[in-house]
Amino acid sequence: MNDTGVARKQHRLLSLQQELLAGRVINKKEYAARFGVTEKSIQRDLDDLKAFFAEGRDGREVVYDPQMKGYRLTRQEPTSLTNSEVLAVCKILLESRSMVKEEMFPILDKLIQGCTPAAQLQQVVALIQNERFHYVEPHHGRRFIESLWQLGTAVKEQRVLRFRYSKMDGTLCDRVVEPVGILFSEYYFYLAAFIRGIDRQEYFDNPQDKSPTIYRIDRISGLQVTDEHFRVPYKDRFQEGEMRKRIQFMYGPNLEAVLDRLPTSRVVGHDHRGYPIAEAEVFSGNGLDMWLKSQGDWVELEKSGEENTASACSDPAHGVQ
């Protein structure tokens, strides 16, 4: 092929590539007539373009579409979040109030940096600015994001864990467990794990219950991922999605959970039995009354004028420590 022929071929290849990138379908007969060559020449050009796109990393390829009776380029799957998706994720994170500012804000900043162009980035910043300014941290005030990866790795590799755990009543206990899953619900991350070295008949309210114990991850300290492995048959594997449908995490007289659910709440004293009394400023409506009543005997609601006060007054169930 002489220099003129090479130049013509390069011109055809660039033209065909532009057509494919523009989403058009290449019909060999039509494009052969357009360039004044045979259909075999167009086929060779398409074969060259197939090889070119196959070497790329975006997953696109040149394919024959029988319905369109021609060749087209498959669409590139998006590998980053759209601006709308970034905004949605930022809103969800802020609403979750699951992390202290030192962990929450860097995640938000990294998400927002994915917005393009710059004007859209600034728009997302403006849309979440007020919520970010008034962000209320969880009352536990602890950083735990790094331990999430350790726990997730231990679950995947089925490694035994050792840690010290602070129960809802403030007492500390040492645990050796077989971790099987990580879950999230209403402000808190949880570890699902089976306890080792404990007599179920003596320790559990329901020894026949084969479900794992649930631990709040922010209450775990002194975490050690051991080299000891455990085995769980595939048929008995823990399924976070299924358990998430069936378990309610926030229950019992957990004052911290009440304060986290109602950011404006504060403890104003104690009743005659020593149970804390909390007050909260909320917008009018039945939402708060419905939530308080859903807590059953664990919360007592008292009305004084237009203000509501509540006191916690029962013992926790066993499943969540």
Commentary on this structure:
The chain is 39% helix and 23% strand. A hairpin with a 2-residue loop joins strand 4 and strand 5. The strands form three sheets. Strands 6-5-4-3-7 form a five-stranded antiparallel sheet. The chain has 321 residues and is an alpha+beta fold. The protein is elongated. It has eleven helices and eleven strands. The longest helix is centred in the first third of the chain and has 19 residues.
Search tags:
5-stranded antiparallel beta sheet; 4-stranded antiparallel beta sheet; disordered C terminus; 321 residues; alpha+beta
Query: What structural category arises from helix and sheet content?
Result: alpha+beta
Low-pLDDT residue spans: 310-319
Rg, Å, rounded: 30 Å
SS summary, helix count: 11
Major sheet size, sense and barrel closure: 5 strands, antiparallel
Mean pLDDT across residues: 81
Strand content: 15-25%
In short:
The chain is an alpha+beta fold and 321 residues long. The protein contains eleven helices and eleven strands. The protein is 39% helix and 23% strand.
Write the layout of secondary structure elements.
Blueprint: H1 3-21, H2 28-35, H3 39-54, E1 62-65, E2 70-73, H4 83-96, H5 101-112, H6 118-133, H7 145-157, E3 159-166, E4 172-185, E5 188-195, H8 200-203, E6 213-216, E7 220-229, H9 240-246, H10 255-261, E8 266-270, E9 276-279, H11 287-294, E10 299-304, E11 307-312
Antiparallel strand pairs: 1-2, 3-4, 3-7, 4-5, 5-6, 8-9, 9-11, 10-11
Helix pairs in contact: 1-3, 2-3, 4-5, 4-6
